[in-house]
Amino acid sequence: MTALESVIRPAVPADLDAVAEIFTHYVRHTVITFEETPPPVAAWHQRLDDLAAQGLPFLVADVSGEVVGYAYAAPWRPKPAYRHTAENSIYLAPGRTGQGLGGALLEALLAACAQTHVRQMIAVIADAGTDASVALHRRFGFTDVGRLAAVGYKHDRWIDTVLMQRTLGHTPESHTRTRRMSQT
Fold this sequence. Notes:
Elements: E1 7-10, H1 16-29, H2 41-53, E2 58-63, E3 66-75, E4 85-92, H3 101-114, E5 120-126, H4 132-139, E6 143-154, E7 157-167, H5 172-183
Parallel strand pairs: 4-5
Antiparallel strand pairs: 1-2, 2-3, 3-4, 5-7, 6-7
């Protein structure tokens, strides 16, 4: 199955059992997430509601009626000045990587966020020894903006995170700069 045979759509409550199952795999078996205890399905319902209330997208990849991946944008930080910046999260079911689903989800997430108040997208990627997530984000215009060394400890090892960023649409700064240039 390829990304072309999948449907990327907004998540609904009926999808959240599958979302929780996908995430549980990563919590228990990888360092991709720094969570150590899988959140219950009720927490996913709360996240879906919270993101919807903030106008942020939560998408799923659906292949023949089966949720095989998901992506969402969440607030980067809680302070008000960060309100135009979001962090993305993308997870695929085990065995569904390398099929173009991550790219399809990221492309749809960026497009959905560009229609909101979000102007900066941040990716915080655990350096798990593979470059797949970093390469995916680079393909979609993210640039490296930093590395945080040994900030996570999971499965008996220290893990770095790679920070990447992409601008969506016009930023308030570019808008101000354009206004100033047109006045001169």
